[in-house]
Structure formats: structure tokens, C-alpha cells
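Exercise 7. Given the encoded structure of a 185-residue chain, write a plausible sequence.
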């Protein structure tokens, strides 16, 4: 392995860690991680010798692609299952989804006074609070609904969102470790 390949592997480890942090704040870190790995794999043909023109094995990249897809499914299903377990209506589940996305952007911009860290914290906080408020608003638009009756579905949606995100972070860490080890060996 040439010294340049070690440099790219080291950079990948650092960028991969940043991608895992992005997953925590509801950004597409798993897909960015795969994108960085694919970019390195593409650049490999320009600086590696012909007999060793690969940093990542195709099986590892394919496995990580499957893991990223599974992570997305788990996150979606966990949020919906949490809302449903709390007795949410379809409107409440849609409200939780829209509220979570809106909360990310609203709170990220509110906390952007502190560069990078504030934005990440704001996005994380916004996804949780936005999911909660969105579920309540969605439930209140249903017939015969009260604020008190909307609390249980909103709490369920929020817990589901947090559990789904935790699962996705675990998957992102597994992808990061697999790709990092493969980059060096």
C-alpha cells in the first residue's frame, strides 16, 4: 500500500466520524459516508497500481449500501410504530413527520449563533420538539380531538423517533468501522 493510500484512509476515518455525527442530528450521514467511500474508490484508479486499484472491497460497499437502506427503514418504521402505539391517527403521524423536518430547519437556524455545534444541537433538538408539536397539531386537526388526548400519540411519536435515530446511529457506526478497517487493510 502506498503512502497516499494511507492518507486517503486516514481522511476517510475523520470524514466518516463527521458523517456519523450528522446522523445524530437527522442529516443523511449514512449516504454521505457511502458517497465519500465511492468517491475514494473512483479516485483509486488514478493513483493506485493496476494490481491493487481498490481501497474498499465491493462486498463491503454493497453491504454498507444495504445497511444504509435498512437504517432508513428502521428509522421510518420506529417513528410510525411509536406514534401508532400511542394511538395516533394518520394525521398525527403525518404531522409528526412534517413537524420533525420543520423543527430541524427552524431550530438549526435559531441556534446557528454558535457556529457548527449550535446548528447541530438545534437540528437535534428541533427534530425531537418538532416531532412532538407536529403530532399534537396533526391530532388536533382530527375530529373530536383534545390537547390531552393528543399527548399520548405525540409522546409515542417522539419516543419512536428517538429510538429510530439511535438505531440508525448504530448502523452508521457499524458502516464507518467496516469501511475504515477495509480502507487500511
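Solution.
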Amino acid at each position: 500500500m502506498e503512502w497516499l493510500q494511507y492518507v486517503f484512509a486516514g481522511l476517510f476515518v475523520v470524514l466518516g466520524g463527521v458523517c456519523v455525527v450528522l446522523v445524530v442530528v437527522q442529516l443523511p450521514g449514512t449516504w454521505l459516508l457511502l458517497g465519500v467511500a465511492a468517491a475514494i474508490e473512483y479516485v483509486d484508479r488514478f493513483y493506485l497500481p493496476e494490481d491493487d486499484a481498490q481501497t474498499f472491497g465491493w462486498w463491503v460497499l454493497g453491504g454498507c449500501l444495504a445497511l444504509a437502506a435498512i437504517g432508513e427503514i428502521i428509522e421510518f418504521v420506529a417513528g410510525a410504530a411509536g406514534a401508532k402505539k400511542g394511538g395516533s391517527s394518520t394525521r398525527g403521524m403525518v404531522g409528526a413527520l412534517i413537524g420533525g423536518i420543520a423543527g430541524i430547519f427552524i431550530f438549526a437556524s435559531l441556534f446557528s449563533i454558535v457556529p457548527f455545534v449550535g446548528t447541530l444541537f438545534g437540528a437535534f433538538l428541533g427534530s425531537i420538539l418538532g416531532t412532538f408539536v407536529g403530532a399534537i397539531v396533526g391530532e388536533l386537526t382530527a375530529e373530536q380531538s383534545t390537547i390531552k388526548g393528543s399527548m399520548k400519540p405525540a409522546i409515542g411519536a417522539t419516543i419512536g423517533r428517538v429510538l429510530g435515530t439511535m438505531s440508525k446511529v448504530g448502523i452508521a457506526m457499524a458502516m464507518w468501522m467496516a469501511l475504515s478497517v477495509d480502507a487500511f487493510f
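Remark. The CA atoms of residues 30 and 172 lie 6 Å apart. Students should compare their own answers with the one above.
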